[in-house]
Amino acid sequence: MTRAEKRAAARMKYVWLYRFKWVNLGIAEDDGFITNIFFESDNRLGLKLSNVETPLIKRAAGQLEEYFEGQRFSFDFPILLSGTEFQKKVWGAVSAIPYGETRTYKEVAALAGNPLATRAAGMANNRNPIVIVIPCHRVIGHDGKLVGYGGGLDVKEYLLELEKQYK
């Protein structure tokens, strides 16, 4: 765990776990911002659940539920990202991928300003702190294959099929 991740983890005020039909997601809030949405099976920061489900966390969970039901295509709750400038550029590029579409890691690297940084873009995507909202599942390999996903390739495939269904 990096120093920045340790600081972020130490600052977490509230973390609540939701059990959606097909996956369990943790949602973390700090000072009025959603700072993390993570797969229960991929809690790399070791965030501990709190005993308070805040209104903002509930709002985020409600929007995620709408997304899973094909009723929401974007999210409008406040987020706060902690990462390097390049990671934030990658997450911005990933966030710009339209619902139901995909981009390769190479395309994401180019959109983030460094077309030669494909691997670095992949690593930034791997460190995405707010899954689904920052739709890292929309990033695929150069050959169109599904590669690497914190929630598992079956979840990535599910999300892409869900979006294709409601596009």
How are the strands ordered across the major sheet? 1-2-3
Strand content: 5-15%
* CATH superfamily label of the largest domain: Winged helix-like DNA-binding domain superfamily/Winged helix DNA-binding domain
Number of strands: 5
Q: What name does the CATH topology of the largest domain carry?
A: Arc Repressor Mutant, subunit A
For the sheet with most strands, the description reads: 3 strands, antiparallel
Order of helices and strands: HEEEHHEHHEH
Molecular shape? globular
Ranges where pLDDT stays below 50 over 5 or more residues in a row are: none
Summarize the structure in words.
This protein has two domains: 3-68, no CATH class; 85-166, Winged helix-like DNA-binding domain superfamily/Winged helix DNA-binding domain (Arc Repressor Mutant, subunit A). It has six helices and five strands, in the order αβββααβααβα. The protein starts with a helix and ends with a helix. Strand 1 and strand 2 (24-30) form a beta hairpin. With 167 residues, the protein is an alpha+beta fold. The longest helix has 14 residues, at 55-68. The strands form two sheets. A three-stranded antiparallel sheet has the order 1-2-3, with helices on one face. It has a two-stranded parallel sheet with strand order 4-5.
